[in-house]
Structures are given as structure tokens and as C-alpha cells.
Amino acid sequence: xxxxxxxxxxxxxxxxxxxxxxxxxxxxxxxxxxxxxxxxxxxxxxxxxxxxxxxxxxxxxxxxxxxxxxxxxxxxxxxxxxxxxxxxxxxxxxxxxxxxxxxxxxxxxxxxxxxxxxxxxxxxxxxxxxxxxxxxxxxxxxxxxxxxxxxxxxxxxxxxxxxxxxxxxxxxxxxxxxxxxxxxxxxxxxxxxxxxxxxxxxxxxxxxxxxxxxxxxxxxxxxxxxxxxxxxxxxxxxxxxxxxxxxxxxxxxxxxxxxxxxxxxxxxxxxxxxxxxxxxxxxxxx
Length: 286
Ligand code: PRT
Ligand code: ZN
What we know:
By secondary structure, the chain is of the alpha/beta class. 27% of the residues lie in helices and 32% in strands. The chain has three domains: 116 residues, Periplasmic binding protein-like II (D-Maltodextrin-Binding Protein, domain 2); 88 residues, 3-Layer(aba) Sandwich (D-Maltodextrin-Binding Protein, domain 2), CATH 3.40.190.10; 67 residues, Alpha-Beta Plaits (2-Layer Sandwich). The model has no long low-confidence stretch (mean pLDDT 95).
């Protein structure tokens, strides 16, 4: 029988959509929807398993799944024997300590002796002991942000992304304990043939994710401006320059980083570039 890898992803929640999109962008197709527990691919040796995110590190370390996509916060909290393969750039958030808005807060020492509610007792207790702070940790599994309001705790340690949940519960974020994003993990003892499939998957994931950070740019410029424009455009190796039908003009093609894009466009216009086109890149292999 030909080998395949079982990739565990979250069945329903904040990681689900981005995990499925990433696999699809890798050109991996599925016949079944995520209403099933498992879904084999029709064109790649991979089967998706749809699980609760908290169970993913355990299943991967037990070998029920060969690999998984899960938040780093869950990986650290569960401390299972798994290998972190690649940061995936989505589900970015942070685990933070928050206190009631009215509380005066000058630094971590103000946490000393407090009752802190959290769903992440392991990460929090490590953080407190590294910083020599003694506090009592109350583990609760959900709605952590309401704990101070109902008198269950004086502070909380919970996942924050925009900060609006804290704000609407009268809390303020005072310390970042851990920064997290979705991570591709694997079982540390994969057979060589599963390892090989995982590497093929990783190759595709990197090509897809790299492309998301770049744009393809085309522009026309008078030949006299080319030298100046080339100092602005980094390119992958070096930009392509093609002569236009109109004498004394060329078309320049290159690749720019998404986050440098607006700054570069202004510089290019100032240097004489015209007819600038910017296109998304689907895959990028370098
Ligand atoms: O059912 P299952 O157990 O699979 O899912 P779950 O409910 O445990 O997890 P889910 O889907 O809520 O989150 C999955 C993962 O997404 C988390 O483990 C994080 O790695 C990541 N993530 C990213 C977040 C957030 N952003 C986030 N904002 N997880 C939770 N939140 C919650 C947070 O707990 C708080 O209640 O959103 C609220 C704060 O959001 P803001 O934007 O108001 O600050
Ligand atoms: Zn969960």
C-alpha cells in the first residue's frame, strides 16, 4: 500500500478556515467536506483529520496523526512530544495578563499574591516563576474574562487579539506572557516515507506562504531613469528589463515585498516610472 500522512486540523473554530485554505492553496484536493471526521485527498498522499484543537498535540505525539496545524499556545500548554516544523503566519494572538482598569499597575510585582484565572496554567506558572512572582492560579476552561467581574479572581491570563474583549469587560492588558500563531507540527518519529511526504507538503506550504508576502511589479520607464529605478527595486535576483516599441523606453519587471510596497511605489514615481502594474503572486519558489 502506498503511504500517506494524516494531518490533524481544527474541526471548527478560529484555525479551521485558514488551515483548509492553506492546504487547498497547496493544490491538495478533497472530495468530502469537513462534516466528516476524516477526509482523504484525491491527488496527494494525505488524509485530513478534523479534531478539537486541544487534542491535536496529543494525537500527533501518539502517532494517531502524523502532523497537525495548531496554535503555539496550545502546543506549549500541552507540552507533548512533537516537533515544530513551520510557523504558518495565521491565528496570530498573544497570551496576556490583564487586570481591572481601575487597578493601579506599575509592574509585575503588582501581580504578587493575586488570584489569576486562566485556561493556560502551565504557561502562566512558568512565566511567573521565571519572573520570581508568586500568585495563585485558578484554572478555568472558558469565559476567563468575566472572572474578575464575578469575584472569582483579581486578574486573568488569556488570549488577546484585538483587545476588544478585555475592554468590554473592564480589563486592561498589562503583560504579554506568550506570542502565538498557527504552527505545523509533526510526530518526531515518522517513517522515512512519511517524512518524505511531509517534506513535499512543506515545500508547497513555503511556496504559497512566501508568495503571500510579495507582489509582482511591472512598470515603464525612460531608459535614462533605469539606473535610478534599479536602486529602488530589489528583485529576486535582478529585475528583467525589456525594450518597449517606443524608442528610449523600457519595461521593468520585478518582485517587491508587500510591506515595502507603498513606500517603493512613491520612490518609483518620483524616479520617472509610469504605467505601474502590481499583481499578486500565486506560488513562489526560490
Ligand atoms: O472547539 P475547539 O477546542 O477546537 O476550539 P477553541 O474554542 O478552544 O479555540 P478557538 O477556535 O477559539 O481558537 C483556536 C486558536 O486560535 C487559539 O488556540 C489561538 O491559538 C488562536 N486565536 C487567535 C485565538 C484568538 N486569536 C482569539 N482572539 N483564540 C481565542 N481568541 C479569543 C480569546 O480567548 C478571547 O475570548 O478571542 C477573545 C479575544 O479576542 P479579542 O479580539 O477581543 O482580543
Ligand atoms: Zn480548544
